[in-house]
Amino acid sequence: MKTVVKSKISALLDEIAKEFNLLVPTAGDGASKFAPYTSGGQVSLDGRTLLPPKDVFFPQTEKMYKFSTDGMAGSLETLLEAPKHQMLFGVRPCDVKSIHELDHVFLTKGFVDEFYQSKRDRTFLVSIGCNGPAEPTCFCQSMGVNPQESDAVDVHLFDLGSEYGAVAKSENGEAFLQKYASFFNEAEVQLPAISEFALKPDVEGITEKLQQMFDHPLWEEVSRKCLGCGACTYLCPTCHCFDISGRVAGNQGFKFRCWDSCMFSEYTRMAGGHNPRPSKKERVRNRFLHKLQYFPERYGDLLCTGCGRCLSKCPVNMDITNIIKQIREVELA
Amino acid sequence: MTQVLRAENPVSPLVPVVGKIIKIVAEKIDVKTFHVSTPEGEKPFTPAPGQLGMLSILNVGEGMFSITTQGPNHLEFSIKKTGVLTDALHEAEVGQTVAVRGPYGNGFPLDFCKGKDILFIGGGIGLAPVRSLINYAVENRGAFGNLQVIYGSRSPADLVFKEDILENWPKVPGMKVDLTVDRGDDEWKGNVGFVPAFIEQLAPSPDGDKVCVLCGPPIMIKFCLQSLAKLGFKDENIITTLEMRMKCGVGKCGRCNIGSCFVCLDGPVFTLAQLQKMPPEY
Amino acid sequence: MSLNTEALPKSQEVTASPEAAPQPWEPRIVGFACNWCTYAGADLAGLSRLQYPPSIRLIRVPCSGRVNPQFVIRAFQRGADGVLVAGCHPGDCHYSTGNYFTRRRFLLMQRLLEYMGMDPRRFQARWISGSEGPKFQQTVTQMTEDIKALGPNRKMRDVE
Amino acid sequence: MITEKIRAAAKELLEKGEVETVIGWERGTFWYNSTPVFISKPEQADRLVFDDFCANNLAKYLLDYRNADGKIAVFVKGCDARAITRLIQDNQVKREKVYLIGIPCTGMKEAPKTVSSQDVAGLPLLAKCQSCATPNPVIYDILLGDPVPQKEVGNRFAGVEALEAKGADEKYEHWGKLFSECIRCYACRNVCPACNCRECAFDANGLNWLGKQNNLQENQMFNMTRAMHVAGRCIECGECERVCPMGLPLMDINRKIIKDLNELFGSYDAGLNLEDRPPLGQYKLDDPEKFM
């Protein structure tokens, strides 16, 4: 396997940054997130970022088209720019999985979302494996993610302690390793053992079980402590619901889409005032059923990658692993 | 019966094309029908009956509406005044620039309906989505059996599409239109009473695999379903359309889901048999 | 999201139409005027042919107490260089006590704006009665002078 | 042990049928997560705990029980009790519909870095608890345990004063940087016991009080308006700051407002006394008029 010592990574990133718009996990003053690489900046390749990388493809606010009006007349123009080729470096396997789920949503079922696709197609993915839970709240292994290795990327880096072992996962990845061959050595490597995860929710058969639990009192029970904020959905790497709204200034304006949260009361409220999900019971139920039943029914995958961000930042410790446990404990008549 | 049609848009299914209001018909005090075509006078896109269109006034907002019918060069939206966008639409005049995108949703199951007798039931503005199929059946008269429309509104003044229900449709061979109002007035000679009771009174027969297409306020639907069950209509043959808040129209933005179905993509047309398998969250 | 206040368009560019010759920058002040006193005072200033700078855009409100702190922030966002809230003198409120609440609320608001990095001179409140046309004239003139000295407001401005 | 006492108290109230629900805390995901729990059967009372991690202010949940038939029992620390006093003052909660079980509180602890070390004593107090001025509940029906002595908290406005001393541009940059981080998840609003509007202005569809774009301007609008809306009603429980996923120092804004209210209209601490009226809900004829 090709290996690169960790101390050489910043030199490698400097080189890459000459070619690509390079995004790396950054821990600055604020929350850790993927941000443009600056030489000597605060790159943080340990653990996962607080903010998931979804905004690289699906920004929190994204302009779609602009318009101008003149009395009754008007015109519009699409604002879809092809971004520069970019590299997302240091994505953890849980987040790689989440990008795969976002691909399902934005690129399949009859409609392709060009705003997402234009960025997705131009992004080179480099993942870094974990040899165990990066945070106590991690549970990716239980959600079918191999914490050590990702396949749906261009290049994967194994964490071998003092160095990374690099494997190309695509043709572009091969070319990349060729191009930067001077940074790598060839070595026999032994992958470290994966350490024990504290949280191990069992999702075997959960979709089928939930199909019979829509009216179960469990939802009333678990939703009581929810505050109805959007912290879980905004930090979730897979949550992808959005709103389309506009901004008008005089006779000019633009329409944009922005993240929205199914936990907000106005999310499903219609113009006449009717709301199909009027209280937090329905909203919490929809969130968890979407993750564990509806999405698997529609796309064949759970909409949770076990990154643990929601349960680490939820103001009231709403814990999806615990809810999964409670679902399992329910005895259906 | 899921038929997903690709939106005809140049760049993205989320970006509309510019259109123009070419005619406005005041149906009743708070309902107007807007005829929309492109600035060149063409039809923005060709929807199947029952499909939806996203209509916007650029500097106000966007909303999903059923396309109540179409002509060779235009689409028609019948819109009740309920919020910010619909208020602005009601203020608009002929010539107003709008933006449209679509068509979205599955539409009515035409192949399933063809060759069968059809009973259309509408309440209030609920006739709007049904009208797209009625007009399709009228235009393709030979492809359908007998047609019957049962339509009710609160008062004679609240009846919409008066030209169709009073003039056009009753003249179509093999087509019958029965009207009822909750409260009559001095000039009203027709039936007075709620739609469900009127259905039972008319007692249309479900024989010959008759299909019933139903749309109206939720409370009316609830009681109509009971009446239809009494008359012996099968759940598979009762078809209705649903309404949910929508933003993208292409099954991505998330909010219009009922279970794992998206109303904007897999709906808005569902049979009662399908609805019974879905969570009652609409 | 960026904090680059330098990236903001120069106010001249915003106000001037492309054909016209560049005009000297004039402040834009949004004034919330109570219907019963200040609006009448402004009316009197007009009737009396009192000259004051055309920098003020008056918005009539039923009472100075109607003015929500959000109005003030929104005005700055949308391009105001200064905001004035004006109403009846204490004791004269058409609704008896509205302006007493205004007084507390906007004393606090002004300090919060200052804490957020705004120059407090950009946000003013005044008591102007229906008979005080000259006071309205003076207030607008003075505030325009002050803001001219401060220059265009770039803070909290909506850059999009 | 306090946990035994609270279990016994809850059990007794439920067994006697005095209350329909007890709101307390239970063990969450890990030993350092204690989370709100709602107990309505006596046999569930053993789920209740009171430890060093019961940071959640439970007062907020009373808004969910505005229309409850029976009484609701709530465990209250000093800050929770102040929040409930405020809610009673705002007519959001009726005093006779709540049963308050007071618990003197020495402060809650930060979560440790790892799950394994169970050294509770070595953990620092939460920021919000370090400057707590009311460790003992100010309103209760019964008090479990003995009142704890008030700590020396020093000048709680020191941080505000340091910021005030900065130049205007420096301040603007400071806040701009922070507000740019805000993801507008509204956790601060939703956790806040002073945010008790039935419909928040920011949720009102169509009125467009706040654009949905996430940008500095709209984030400034949100954060400043939120602070103004809780002015005079903030009880300094610090929950907004604790729950902010981005770690924004929101109490620096709330405390600034409290400091100004004290300076302008006389000393006032929200939620200490049922009879007090909030400073922005009243006026004096001789209020300062400096810039009017």
Number of separate structural domains of chain D = 2
Residue share in β-strands of chain D: 5-15%
Number of strands of chain C: 4
Number of domains of chain C: 1
Tell me the strand percentage band of chain C: 5-15%
* Secondary structure tally: strands of chain D: 5
Q: Runs of chain D with pLDDT <50, length 5+? A: none
The topology string of helices and strands of chain D comes to HEEEHEHEHHHHHH
Global structural class of chain D: alpha/beta
Number of helices of chain C: 5
Helix content of chain C: 25-40%
* Coarse shape of chain C: globular
State the oligomer.
Answer: heterotetramer
Major sheet size, sense and barrel closure of chain D: 5 strands, mixed
Major sheet of chain C: size, sense and barrel closure? 4 strands, parallel
The termini of chain D sit apart by 57 Å
User: Which value, in Å, is the CA radius of gyration of chain C?
Assistant: 16 Å
Tell me about this structure.
The complex is a heterotetramer of chains A (333), B (282), C (160) and D (292). Chain A has 333 residues and is of the alpha+beta class. Chain A has eleven helices and twelve strands. Chain A has helices at 9-19, 54-57, 93-107, 114-121, 171-179, 206-210, 218-223, 231-235, 280-299, 309-313, 320-329, and strands at residues 2-5, 21-26, 33-36, 61-70, 73-78, 86-91, 123-128, 155-159, 163-168, 185-186, 242-249, 252-259. In chain A, the strands form two sheets. Chain A has an eight-stranded mixed sheet with strand order 3-2-6-7-8-9-1-10. A four-stranded antiparallel sheet of chain A has the order 5-4-12-11, with no helix packed on it. The relative contact order of chain A is 0.16. The mean pLDDT of chain A is 93. Chain B has two domains: 17-104, Translation factors (Elongation Factor Tu (Ef-tu), domain 3); 110-241, Rossmann fold (3-Layer(aba) Sandwich), CATH 3.40.50. Chain B has helices at 84-91, 110-113, 127-139, 162-171, 195-202, 218-231, 272-277, and strands at 17-28, 31-37, 52-57, 61-66, 69-70, 75-80, 97-104, 118-123, 147-153, 175-181, 191-192, 211-215, 238-241, 257-258, 261-262, 269-271. Chain B has a seven-stranded antiparallel sheet. A seven-stranded mixed sheet of chain B has the order 11-10-9-8-12-13-16, sandwiched between helices. In chain B, strands 14-15 form a two-stranded antiparallel sheet. Chain B starts with 16 loop residues before the first strand and ends in a 5-residue tail after the last helix. Chain C has 160 residues and is α/β, with parallel strands linked by helices. Chain C has one domain (43-160). Chain C has helices spanning 11-15, 38-47, 69-77, 98-115, 133-150, and strands at 29-34, 56-61, 82-87, 123-127. In chain C, strands 2-1-3-4 form a four-stranded parallel sheet, with helices on both faces. Chain D is of the alpha/beta class and 292 residues long. Chain D has two domains: 2-143, no CATH class; 158-281, no CATH class. Helices cover 31% and strands 9% of the residues of chain D. Chain D is built from nine helices and five strands; from the N terminus they run αβββαβαβαααααα. In chain D, strands 2-1-3-4-5 form a five-stranded mixed sheet. In chain D, helix 5 (168-181) packs across helix 7. The longest helix of chain D is centred in the last third of the chain and has 15 residues, at 251-265. The N and C termini of chain D lie far apart (57 Å). The mean pLDDT of chain D is 92. Chains in contact: A-B, A-C, A-D, C-D. The interface between A and B is large, with 52 and 47 residues.
